[in-house]
Design brief:
By secondary structure, this protein is an alpha+beta fold. It contains six helices and 16 strands. The chain folds into two domains: about 100 residues, Api92-like domains (Alpha-Beta Plaits), CATH 3.30.70; about 180 residues, no CATH class.
């Protein structure tokens, strides 16, 4: 069982210095097959882990007992089981815990594509539903905007259409091309067609689940975003309106060559044209 996790330790500065030294000794005695990377800053200690067999919680629980004035916040994702979770440990005890499903290609989950620039800025996060043979619906997010989307394609001619919302439940933006590979012509309809209520409800539900699993927002409260902001600072990333959760960033960073874009995709080959079209059109509105 491969676990990707981050543990952030905050609190008294002098205690953090002592805790860092203690954890170095404790972790050196714990067999960790893959890696533990340290990204410490002025306000917190941060450990990125990619380990087999589960998070080495006993090590951090022991350190927490020895430094009860510090808070140990852990976030993890188990890709194989499609699960993510979080817990806060203070004085050796779990004071808060959460868990949720994450998007994967198993069961009823929808395919996803998440792409992050080398500097940490979200280029595109996308989840899709194959509504019909030649119709795709979904939810798309960049660092500054989001939309429900609908894409169609004529298999005979390659003609395509991309529709996107802009706040309301209506197709406010449109791109069309006469053939595959043609440049898309942009239109903002004077009277945007309303979205079918059933389709809107379905896509809103898909969007909420996807956002909860993958994203955090700058507009969140200080308490909700403090850990994410600290981890972005430790990574050297700027914070935008929408951002990928650091527990996923850790996995993407571990899998990507240094200095390259970060990407995770479970899109099928026949879905990828929608992602490419969004990047060439809607995503450029930022």
């Amino acid at each position: 069982m491969l676990i990707h996790a981050t543990v952030t330790i905050s609190g008294d500065a002098a205690s953090r210095v002592a805790c860092e030294a203690r954890l170095r000794r404790l972790l050196s005695g714990q067999f960790i097959k893959n890696e533990v990377t340290e990204h410490h800053g002025a306000e917190a200690l941060c450990y990125d882990l990619k380990v087999d067999g589960g998070i080495p919680f006993p090590v951090f629980a022991q350190a927490s007992l020895e430094f009860p004035e510090l808070a140990f916040d852990a976030q993890w994702v188990n890709v194989e089981h499609g699960e993510q979770g979080g817990a806060t440990i203070v004085n050796g005890r779990v004071t808060a815990r959460e868990s949720a499903r994450v998007a994967s290609r198993s069961g009823d989950d929808h395919p996803v594509h998440v792409e992050v620039a080398p500097g940490g800025r979200l280029r595109l996060a996308l989840t899709l539903i194959r509504a019909a043979r030649d119709e795709w619906r979904g939810y798309a997010v960049t660092a500054t905007r989001d939309a429900l989307v609908r894409a169609t394609r004529d298999p005979a001619t390659g003609a395509f259409e991309l529709l996107a919302t802009e706040g309301a439940a209506e197709w406010a933006l449109a791109w069309r091309g006469a053939r595959a590979g043609a440049e898309a012509a942009f239109e903002r309809p004077a009277r945007p067609p309303a979205m079918d209520d059933a389709i809107y409800r379905e896509l809103e539900s898909v969007a909420e689940r996807f956002a909860a699993a993958w994203l955090w927002l700058e507009s969140g409260t200080a308490a909700e975003t403090a850990v994410e902001r600290e981890r972005y600072r430790l990574y050297g990333y700027g914070v935008a309106a929408a951002n990928v959760r650091s527990v996923h960033l850790h996995r993407l960073r571990a899998d990507a060559p240094e200095g390259s874009a970060l990407e995770h995709s479970t899109l099928e080959p026949e879905d990828r044209w929608v992602k490419d079209l969004l990047l060439a059109t809607w995503a450029k509105l930022d």
